[in-house]
Each structure stands twice: as C-alpha cells, then as structure tokens.
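2024-03-11 09:14:02 DEBUG pipeline.ingest accepted 1 chain
2024-03-11 09:14:02 DEBUG pipeline.ingest length=494
2024-03-11 09:14:03 DEBUG pipeline.predict start
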Amino acid sequence: MTARTLMIQGTSSGAGKSLLTAALCRLYARRGLRVLPFKAQNMSNNAAVAACGGEMGRAQALQARAAGVEPCVEMNPVLLKPLADTRSEVVVLGRSDPALTALPWRERKDALWGVVRDSLASLREAADLVIIEGAGSPAEINLPDIVNMRVAREADAPVLLVTDIDRGGAFASLYGTWALLPEVDRARIAGFVLNKFRGDASLLEPGPTILAERTGVSTVGVVPWLRLDLPEEDAASLDDRGSAAGLDIVAVRLPHVSNFDDLDPLAAEAGVRVRWVDDPRELAGADAIVLPGTRNTTDDLRWLWRTGLATAIRAHAGSGLPVVGLCGGYQMLGEIVTDPLRLEGGGEVPGLGLLEIRTELRLAKITRQTRGRWLCGTGPLASLRGSPASGYEIHHGHTVLGAGVEPLLESEGNVAGAARDGVWGCYLHGIFADDPLRSAWLESVRAGTASALRWDEHLDAELDRLADAVEGGLEMDTIDLLVGREDGTWGKSS
C-alpha cells in the first residue's frame, strides 16, 4: 500500500504553489494524517539543512514543519543553486554533485529522473498522503520535464492548477496552460485555483463558468491575498518588511543573496523595519547594516566594491554603526577572500577590512545543523557568553582569526565567528530565530527595543493562519475526494 497523492502546479513561478502546498500539509496533518511534502527539483539559493546534513529547499523544510515532520532530503531530491546567470550548482539528495554541475541541463535529466522517482516512492511508503509541488509551469514546452506532469504521471496524482490573480490575466493563464498540455496531461487537472485574490469573489463571474465550459475543469477555490511572516523561496520576492517607523535595519541585496530568511525574525518584531538595498545612498538613516549570505562570495564582494557599497559600509562602521555579517557576509567583513580552486569567481578579493579574519574557499563543503555556544565576553552579545548557540551551516570557506578580533562562538569544536566592538559575523544561519540573541542584539542597537516575540510560536501561528485561509477558500469536500476520502474514511492506494 502506498500513499495517496495530490499535486499543486502553477501557471507560472510565484503563483503560490509553495504556500498552498504548506497549507494543505498543515490542514491534513491537523486531521490526523501523516503528510509528507515533495518537490522533485527546486531552484533556489535559500536552502535548509536536514538532520542528515544534506541541503534541501527552504520551501520543503517549511512544508515539513507545516506537516509536523522532520525535513529530509528526499522531499527535495534535486536542488539547483544559481552561481551565475548561466551556471548552477547541482545538489542531489543533499550533496553537491560536481559531475552533474558540469553537464548541460538536457544531459542531466536522465541521470536525475531515477533519483526523483526513487525519492517519491520512499515518501509514499512512509506516508498516508504526499502533497507534491511542481515548478514553474507544466506548459514550459521548451524544457524537458522531471518536475511537473512527468511526476504527476509517476505518482498517479490529480493536479490542482493555481494562478496568481493579483498579477492579472489569470483566466488566460489557466486556459493557456491547459491548452498547451497534451490530452493525457489535461485529464489530470482536477481543478483550478485562483490565488492571492483581493475583493469581492462574486465579481469573478462569468470567468469561472466560461473557463469550465471551454475546458471541462471547475474552479475549486479562491484563496485571499495574505501578508505572512513565512520564509520566501525566491530573492525576486524580497521587499521591505516590518514597521514603517522605528529601528531601521538595512540588509544588502547581494546579486547572489542566499538564506535571506535569516532576517525574517527581525522584520517580524514590533517597531523594527528591514530594508533591502543595493545602492550606497540607501544606507542613509540606517541603525544597523546586515550583510546576508551569498552563494558566490567572491563575485558579490567585487560587486560591493564596484557599486561603492563597500566603501560606504566601511564609513558607516567607522562612525560606530553596528554591522553584522552572516556566512558569506561574515567572510566579506574580513581582510581577504581567496578562491584558489575557482569554486566561485576565482582569485583573491579584498574584504571590507572590518574584522581581522582571512578566508579561503576550499573544496570540502560544510553542511550541517549546528549546536555550539557563545564565547564573546565583550560587545553587543556579551550577555550570551556561555549560553547555547544553534543554527545551520552551508559554506566552502575556512576562516582564520587574527589577534585583533574576539572569537564569537564555538561550533562543533571550531570557532565559527568573530567580533570587534559593534561589528560581528558568524557562519551560522538561523541565529536571529534565537529569541535571547535577537533580543540582546536589538537592545544593543537601540535601548528599549528588546524582543517580546517568540519566533517559533509566531511561525506556527502563521502556518495555522495560512491553513485556515486556504481551508476557507477551497472547496474542501472536493479536495478530500481527490486525496482519497470515501464515506468519511481515508485510505492508501493499492
């Protein structure tokens, strides 16, 4: 017996597939089912680390949380991490694969399909229900498919096709996607979903009726537009978040920015705003600057110097403004970053010189969940000395500290961060999700802004709010029948 399946596909990227999948994971988990998420292939630099130490898409880790299960790499067996406009690192079952990275895409697909098929099968053996997310659109007829309808056929999954009605052109997008599919795949589309709708749903008619007449597919839901404090998968969706007034934290929008959800807990704080900037003039008025992670430290460091941001950040730090670097951003705060093996941009690039550290990119990639302890006895995090630190690491860098900095934290027996006065950085992602650390740092930036937020509770409340909205917007009796409820009972397929 294997798990029933339901697949969420979209008319485009950004249609809302990831959050709709998360909502359904939470809904059916609340009903007592063991639900597991799956996405065959993801393209994102916003990665999570599973307990096994492997990388996977942040969206699938969030979906696993929504389902109340531990994330595993089989939920996202193929992860593409863009290094440049035409080059991506290929991560297979959590580990970087240099051979596949070197191959053109059309030559990779045959090698990857077996991994996709086997991962899906293992999840179906372990679950009551697998909610599958597609990628982009199933009607991208110029691309070989290992993530949309090929997966739906393998899983024998009914498909909900979702579109972002807030963009406009929703009915044309649904009809056009349906029309471009071969008949065998059209038959899998069990319902249309209009997502991110603002306004009176009665004004949608006669759109859904005409669409059903022409396709034979009914619209099974209208999901409202929601503002949620949940991790985004795509850097293109980054925008300013938080309070319109109050503490102004500026985050640098690096060209290859990664793990940008590190700043979400800050943006969720009352009286705090996080602004993403890419121009040195936009640093004006900042109370603190954060350099986030990046998948290409050397190229992004060159970009900082070329745009004038490096010089401006140095000047602000010199005037006493707090500056924080996370992972690649931590490396940038140092004296130099070297890439002798050309893992990224190659060569040697001078850092900002705000911390006396030197970094070399090495072949071995560290990916792990981390538990350590805070070491720093002075500066903004001194109150945390000796307390536990937790997060996750994804980096090629090996960093050596000089005499002019204080070790910030210990991770797996190694020093993983450094500090000097108000400037500090570390290799741990996810540290701002730690309530005591976030509170201590905010208080150091501006007295009286200590945190009252409990981030884990807030995240789960946001997932419940999402699930409630989706439950209210979808025809759940129809969805229940699609995933196997008969006469009030649930059953696996044979």
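2024-03-11 09:14:41 DEBUG pipeline.report The chain has two domains: 4-225+460-485, 237-453.
2024-03-11 09:14:41 DEBUG pipeline.predict end
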